[in-house]
Amino acid sequence: MFKFKFIFSTVTIVTFLIITSTIKNETRVIEKKILSLSSEIASKKEDLNETQLDFYYLSSPAEIEKKLYIIGFDEYQPISYSKIFFKISDFTEIEKKLSNLKKLNEKKIKKK
């Protein structure tokens, strides 16, 4: 009876030690991944902020006017109203139509 209790308690303790170490290693790996993803997110946020700053600067009326003076008013062609999209859904609808037409043309060429 004593041997059975001793063996059972030893096996139980060893099993818990193994389970604990594997869980600890897995959490360590997860923490490393979280740290790397956090640093990646921080760099992306910084890039986004810089890009927004560049956009606001370059699209300011004063900058646009400077560029027009540099390239000249003769070469300047404004965008037609039909090429301006007010919603992303409008753009995606047109993109789907264009991509379907491209696929049809590719099929016709392959048949010839």
Describe it.
With 112 residues, this protein is an all-alpha fold. It has a domain at 80-112. 82% of the residues lie in helices and 0% in strands. It has helices at residues 2-58, 61-71, 88-111. It is elongated and about 100 Å long. The N and C termini lie far apart (87 Å).
What secondary-structure arrangement, pairings included, does this model have?
Blueprint: H1 2-58, H2 61-71, H3 88-111
Brief description of this entry?
With 112 residues, the protein is an all-alpha fold. It has helices at residues 2-58, 61-71, 88-111. It has 3 helices and no strands.
What are the main properties of this structure?
mainly alpha, elongated, 112 residues, single chain
Task: Tell me the number of strands.
Answer: 0
Mean pLDDT: 80
How would a crystallographer describe the biggest sheet?
A: none
Number of helices: 3
Shape category: elongated
Q: Which structural class do the helices and strands define? A: mainly alpha
Beta-strand portion reads: under 5%
Quaternary:
single chain
Give the N-to-C terminal Cα separation: 87 Å
| CA-based gyration radius | 32 Å
Helical content (DSSP H or I, runs of 4+) = over 70%
* Poorly predicted parts: none
Query: Helix-strand pattern, N to C?
Result: HHH
